[in-house]
Amino acid sequence: MSTEQHEISLDQQVALKGAAQRLAEHFSGTFNKETIERFLVSSYDEFADRATLTNFLPLLAERFAKQRLQALARVEGHGSDGKPIVLFLCVHNAGRSQMALGFFNHHARDRAVAWSGGSEPGTQINPSAIEAMAERGIDITEEYPKPWTEEIVSAADVVVTMGCGDACPYYPGKRYEDWELDDPAGKSVEDVRPVRDEIERRVLELLDELVAVSAKG
Questions:
Q1: Average pLDDT over residues 166-192
Q2: Annotated catalytic residue: which of 69, 90, 91, 114?
Q3: What average pLDDT does range 38-62 have in this prediction?
Q4: Among 67, 170, 182, 186, which lies 20 to 30 A Cα-Cα from 162?
Q5: Known catalytic residue: 90?
Q6: Which residues partner with 90 through β-bridges?
Q7: Please, where in the chain does CATH 3.40.50.2300 lie?
Q8: Exposed, middle or buried: residue 79 (CB in 10 Å: 0-12, 13-18, 19+)?
Q9: Separation of alpha carbons 181 and 60, rounded Å
Q10: CA distance 174 to 59
C-alpha cells in the first residue's frame, strides 16, 4: 500500500496493511477493500505534511479513516443507531473544539456522538486546554487536531462552529450553531478556565436538548 503524495517506510507500510485489515473486519459487509484502502491512504496524507512524530502516522490515519467511514456509512444509509451526532469545528482543532468534544463525550456517555475538526488543523492539542480539562477530570491527550471532511459534515445532525468563520463548511438544511468564545491559543491555564466553563455550560444545554428530542422519537 502506498500514498499518492508521500514516500512511506517499510514499517509504515506494514502498519498501514494491518490497519486496512482491521478496518476491513470492522466494516465487513458495508465497504469493500478498495474503499477502505482509499480512505486510509487519504487519511494518512491528511496528516503526513504536518506530522511532528511520523511513527504515529499509521495510527492517526486508521483512527481518522474509521471515523470517516462511520460517517459515510450513516450518510449512505448503512444502518444507524439513531444517536444524534454533533460536530465541533474551530480553526486549529487544538483548543475550543477539543474541549467541547471532551465535555460532550464525558456527559453524553452513550446517548449521543461527537466529532471535532478544524479548518486549519494544528500539530498538537493546546497544553493549557489539556491542563484545564484535566482539572475537571477529563483527559483529552489522546485526541489530535484533524480536518473536517465532506462525509463527516454530511453525517452530523448539528454543526457547532467556534471562530472559523467563512472557512467552516456550510451545507444547506443542516442545523448550525455559532459559539462566540475566546481563542485559548497562547493563553495560560488561568485564562482558559473561563472559556472551558462556558463551553461546558453550552455543551450541557445542547446535549439536554438533543437527548430530549431523541427520546421523543
A1: 92
A2: 90
A3: 87
A4: 67
A5: yes
A6: 118
A7: 85-215
A8: exposed
A9: 28
A10: 31
